[in-house]
Each structure stands twice: as structure tokens, then as C-alpha cells.
Amino acid sequence: MPNKVYSRLIVRYPYQTNRDYALSYRFAAKRLAETFTGDTIDDLILLPFLTLYRQSFELELKNLIQFLVSTRMTYVEGRTSELEQARSDERFKELGHNLHKLLNEAKKHYDALDLDEAFPPEVEKLIAMLHEADKSGTAFRYAGQLPNTQEHADFPDLAALLDQQYDNLTVITDYVDGLYSAGPTLNEVAGDYY
Fold this sequence. Notes:
0% strand; 8 helices
């Protein structure tokens, strides 16, 4: 759809990463949450809102896995067949949209770095709750996959919780990067011996 006026232009940028997409889904969820007024009609935004946040957590976990594996390869263990497999498309197809599997994979690579800080338990708890609510990754998107019960939530508190724990998840990348990026890579260390 060609735009006619600059102020109506919207752009899809090429070469975006999973993190870029995760941030976009989160941005859309936050914009949607800002429309909440407490009126009955707002019940209609709950499932689209949860879908957007669930997708942002899924993509951020995938980004974190790739980052942690790359960190292990660059600074700790070097390129191994195990680590190459861990960041392959085939491995991500195996993990699919399952938040439980993605979380366990991220924690495995995080723990392999033997860091002083534990993986944030609040993030783990929230991702477990999202997984329990939508194990397939489609329950928020398609009718008939959620329990046949009426449920209630404080929407502003829910939005704040999701937002805070998403921030806590993204900070893991910054924390690990801050610990390793100032140090020498394995290639730099090996170069010093030649």
C-alpha cells in the first residue's frame, strides 16, 4: 500500500533481530495497555495484550539463548559442535514456541557461565505462569484452548508485572555483556601465545 503523505508512512526495516521483534511486540502491548479505561469494552484487549507479551518473552528468550551461546563460544569454550548445535535453526525448531523449554535452555547456558548472580527467580516464575496459561503458544490466539472459566485480573497490575519482568529478562543480556565484553576473547588470548 503506497503511502501518499509522509505523516501516514509506516516502515518495516530489514535485518531486524529477535530482540528487535521482541521489543516491537512489547511496545505494541504497552501501547494497547495505555488504551485501558476500566470500561467493559476493555475486556476485548486482554487476549491480544497477552499474545503480544507472550510473543515478546518468547523472542527475548530466543535472543538470550543465542547471546549466551555466543558468549560461551567467544570468551569461555570456543567453537564446539555442541555450542554450534545450540544456536542452530534446527535446535530452535526443536524448542519451538514452548516457553518452558526456552527458559530451561536459557538457564542451562546462563549456568554454564558460572556467574555470581542467579538467574532472576521472578522472571522464571512469570515465564512459568505464561507457559502454564498458554503451553502451545496458541491459546491466547485461538478460541477453545483456554479453560472454560471466567477469570478476573487487575489489568494495570498485570501490565506492570509483565513490563517489569520483561525488563528483568532483558537486563540479563546487559549483565553478561558487561562482565565479558571488556575482557579478552579466546582468539585474543590465543594470539598472545604466538
